[in-house]
Amino acid sequence: MSNETLQAVKGMNDILPDEAELWLWFEEEVRDWLHSYGYRNIRMPLVEPTALFRRAIGEVTDIVEKEMYSFEDALNGDHLTLRPEGTASCARAALQHNLLYNAPQRLYYSGPMFRHERPQKGRYRQFHQFGVEALGFAGPDIDAEQILMCARLWRRFGLRDVALQLNTLGDSASRHRHRAKLISYFEQHRDMLDADATRRLHSNPLRILDSKNPAMQELVAAAPRLADELEDDALRHFDEVQAMLKRHDVAFEINPHLVRGLDYYNRTVFEWVTTRLGAQGTICAGGRYDGLVEQVGGKPTPATGFAMGVERLLALLLEDGMALPRAEVDVYVVHQGELASRLASRVAEQLRDDRLRVLLHCGGGSFKSQMKKADASGAAVAVVIGDDEAQANEVSVKPMQGGEQVRVSVQNLTATVNQII
User: Fold this and answer.
1) Total structural domains in the chain?
2) 278 and 342 together in one domain
3) pLDDT in tens, 12-25
């Protein structure tokens, strides 16, 4: 057997206690923000049938072709995949449990997603998202509301240098016409296409517009525009979204090459981007996907949603100088002696019964060494117990930020601590 020290899988990171405190704070802030807009939590499995993502995301997307962690169940031969995104899972769950036929749903979820990508700053093989989905809403008001939601969250966090890019993909008929024109255009310039663009030319030419290859930018810029194919309904929808954003003073840039990497989108698509994370500048993205529920087996259902990358947002917050929050401790219990140790355990539980956060010293040591640990813990109060106090069923209470140490009965301990903190 090898004695080699085992490491985490490349691109899948441990989140250690100091950093995890920031995650907990962030998650609490985001949940509070979501609840303020009436969104309710839904939780889906990490593993789904591979067919769900092939059908929903698209066979010729990067995610399905190259990035999914898929495997065959050794027990029954089912083809399964670690979820690479949450929207398809959420639509599947809402359909399976008949959530869509009573009333429109505002739902959110959070947790890890998995894509086999090259790890780099802001992009990992296990990454975390908050996803927000509004199912059953057809109007432009919900598209605008979700963008306004994001703008409010950025203000809440004090994020700088975050910009909104906006586009519309129209409806299926206009995309079909645009697709034919794109194929014809790129066929005429086949010698200028890179390998990815050549591979996608007939299967998914819209994705060529999203190419990051500098050598192709001039070619892409001159490509036929989807905007020239849009029908009146899609144009009115997009105009109303823009008007609502303007009324709320949300600045945006129309990016005609914004197509998103998942095939289920239609009409409104958007990305919030920053220049401060290198090439991986998108921190939040989404749009409308009216055909997805039907694609996974349901009736036609309008829907729109977005997802935000937790790691990327936290990287921005830390870059802005946010200090890592620390778990707060109210009381550190110091004790020495056999009788004192017995009472210390009982006192700690009593304080926890009264909803106080308590660290009970473990491992022995002198009063002096224990008090150093009490000071380092950040506790507001030290409760000090020796055998003399224990025999009298009393304790000493010492404010850690200065103040007189007092001796009180165990019965009066909680009241005394609460007065100090």
Assistant:
1) 2
2) no
3) 999 998 889 899 99
Render the burial of 360-386: b for 16+ CB within 10 Å, e for the rest: bbeeeeeeeebbebbeebebbbbbbbb
Q: Name residue 192's amino acid.
A: M
Per the domain annotation, does 148 fall within a domain? yes
Closest among 302, 282, 285, 283 to 293, alpha carbons compared: 302
Q: Which of 117, 40, 126, 124 is nearest to 83 (CA)?
A: 126
At residue 2, the pLDDT reads 67
Q: Whole domain around residue 109: which residue ranges?
A: 17-171+231-319
Cα 384 off chain centre by: 43
Q: Do 44 and 157 have their domain in common?
A: yes
Residue 199 in domain: no
What is the DSSP code (8-state) at residue 225? Answer: P
Measured CA to CA, the distance from residue 367 to residue 288 in angstroms comes to 63
CA–CA separation, 315 and 308 (whole Å) = 13
Q: Is 232 exposed, middle or buried (0-12, 13-18, 19+ CB in 10 A)?
A: exposed
Both tokens of residue 151?
């703008």
Q: Which is nearest to 264 in space by CA: 81, 3, 29, 64?
A: 64
Q: What is the CATH number of the domain that holds 392?
A: 3.40.50.800
For residues 151 and 261, membership in a common domain is answered with yes
Sheet holding 47-49, edge to edge: 47-49, 79-82, 69-72
In this prediction, residue 212 carries a pLDDT of: 78
Answer yes or no: do 348 and 265 share one domain.
Answer: no
* Model confidence band, residue 199 (pLDDT cutoffs 50, 70, 90): confident
Distance between CA atoms of residues 338 and 349, nearest Å? 18
In 10 A of CB 311, how many CB atoms? 20
